[in-house]
Amino acid sequence: MKDGLGPPAYADILDASKRLSRVAARTPLLACPAADVICHGRVLVKAEVLQRTGSFKFRGAYNLISRLSGEDRARGVVAYSSGNHAQAVAAVAELLGVPATIVMPGDAPRLKIEATRGYGAEVVLYDRYGESREAIAAALVAESGATLVPPFDHPMIIAGQGTVGLEIGEEMTTRDMAPDIVLVPCSGGGLVAGTALAVKHRFPAAAIHSVEPDGFDDTARSLRAGTRQQADRGARSICDALLAPTPGELTFPINRSLLAGGFSVSDEMARAAMAFAFRHLKLVVEPGGAVALAALLSGKVGCAGKTVVVVCSGGNVDPDVFSAALAPAPEPRLASG
Amino acid sequence: MKDGLGPPAYADILDASKRLSRVAARTPLLACPAADVICHGRVLVKAEVLQRTGSFKFRGAYNLISRLSGEDRARGVVAYSSGNHAQAVAAVAELLGVPATIVMPGDAPRLKIEATRGYGAEVVLYDRYGESREAIAAALVAESGATLVPPFDHPMIIAGQGTVGLEIGEEMTTRDMAPDIVLVPCSGGGLVAGTALAVKHRFPAAAIHSVEPDGFDDTARSLRAGTRQQADRGARSICDALLAPTPGELTFPINRSLLAGGFSVSDEMARAAMAFAFRHLKLVVEPGGAVALAALLSGKVGCAGKTVVVVCSGGNVDPDVFSAALAPAPEPRLASG
């Protein structure tokens, strides 16, 4: 636990859902016959790229910031983020009339930096490999009395992201279906923790898996070890949204207790999944947002005869990166069978 | 009227909706704050790119083919199409176990030809500028006794496409909103006719407009003239889905009676709308599918203070064409004010 805050409960997700109902999109759960053929199962894609600000991050940011008192709102919010949380905090702050300062790495996608500024936030750039974003944010908070909106390690952030799982569960129930496997992109683990809390409440037998980029599979390693492990020092990935070096203090105990395990995928597999989503889903998915789909298409997950839900978590990608992913793009296939 | 078939009624759209409920996607109606800012109104995007086969065409094709008798199904179906109707007929035929032969122009997007073959249809290519697709299809029908599935001029096709309008109407009612303006891409006019029938039933004051590529604005001209006019001979456009040279015999009387008018847009405006959809909606939209959004963003439509629904009708586009649209892509802006 962090700052004395305990983990969120299912009731917190229900509460977040009510709070979000008038402002967030209820994103569709799309069928994908082309993926069904590849994995010999039934695939449903939670298209969270269609969420406000282009990623699931709007949910957690709104759930936290909308609870601040008028006094706290006036002092503003501070966040650090490689881009999706940045845009979400900036957009929510604009919506609620709260001043926002966002600490972002200088090598974040241009589109993410521009969009964050576009929502009226002040952006402070730092060197991802030489400076501590936590330290910069802490100094800003100390100076202004602003509220720090952490990217994942806060019960209200986790509960907000958990509404993704709540919607999956409700929609599956409406369609008289049950998920056997749920694949969720993972950085600090907030989305997968919240999703697991919500999905397991309704479908206790569902196997929830985190999916990370190769080298940044600290959650997968931690799940195997039972304790929080680090990502590879010096690892690089095009999945700019998924570079957190270690699982969260609040998120990891939830994931350890609820997840069936973790997968990781290469940059090449993430690009192939982006090309697949372009061709068969007509969705723009960013590299990090495509890793769960990549795990599915790669054949790493035993999906034969199963009902599989894949979360595509974000679509904020620069045009040149997107076009490069489409260019070579052989259709991903199962390694065997 | 054609072959003695009368125009569809609102009840036919309700009936089509029931028939489609288990097989077609109910596509989302997405908010778009970035478009709200540009047009000083409230914009909702009907994301029909997320429909099965990547365009609205699945609706009409399924509504017609699923009504064929077992005997007619055994003799197969024939269709001519530049690509979206082709894929839809092929996919529906595969779903229902009906043999399909599709007549497509040799210069259709590769992705559309490949997808049509992928659904198991036999594809017959022809020269768009030298041969008559209608004549080729008629010869195939005469030979095999197959049923021709026309791209727009059939009451069951129009009623099927009308379910787009039905969903727009239902969703707006649920959200306690009313559309002032509805913008719909138009080739032969089946989608806009069906959409107008459905939307005007619930919202008689809504102003429905067709949107076509410059030079192929035969529906806009026909609406002004009151009689069916031709597109420019020798006109060219990247909007491969919208090259029908004249309004349909069945669709035009419906559109003449229900539409407020028609707009047309340049290829450049269509490309800018594709780039906008990539950036702000995270949707893959093909050139022809983006013309209604293009009309909105161009400032041609007086949207200030209005609630505007824009249909993005298809997303089947080759990667090189899509990447080229993203490459230069200045954000579209209003010409003035």
Care to describe what's here?
- Chain A is of the alpha/beta class and 337 residues long.
- The first copy, chain A, has two domains: 10-55 and 154-326, 3-Layer(aba) Sandwich (Rossmann fold); 58-148, 3-Layer(aba) Sandwich (Rossmann fold).
- Helix content of chain A is 44%, strand content 15%.
- Chain A contains 14 helices and ten strands.
- The first copy, chain A, has helices at residues 10-20, 33-39, 57-65, 70-75, 84-96, 110-118, 133-144, 155-174, 190-202, 218-225, 251-258, 267-281, 291-298, 319-326; strands at 29-31, 42-47, 77-80, 100-105, 122-126, 147-148, 181-185, 207-213, 261-265, 307-312.
- In chain A, strands 1-2-10-7-8-9 form a six-stranded mixed β-sheet, with helices on both faces. Chain A has a four-stranded parallel β-sheet with strand order 5-4-3-6, sandwiched between helices.
- In chain A, helix 3 (57-65) crosses helix 8.
- The longest helix of chain A is centred in the middle third of the chain and has 20 residues, at 155-174.
- At the A-B interface, helix 12 and helix 14 of A face helix 12 and helix 14 of B.
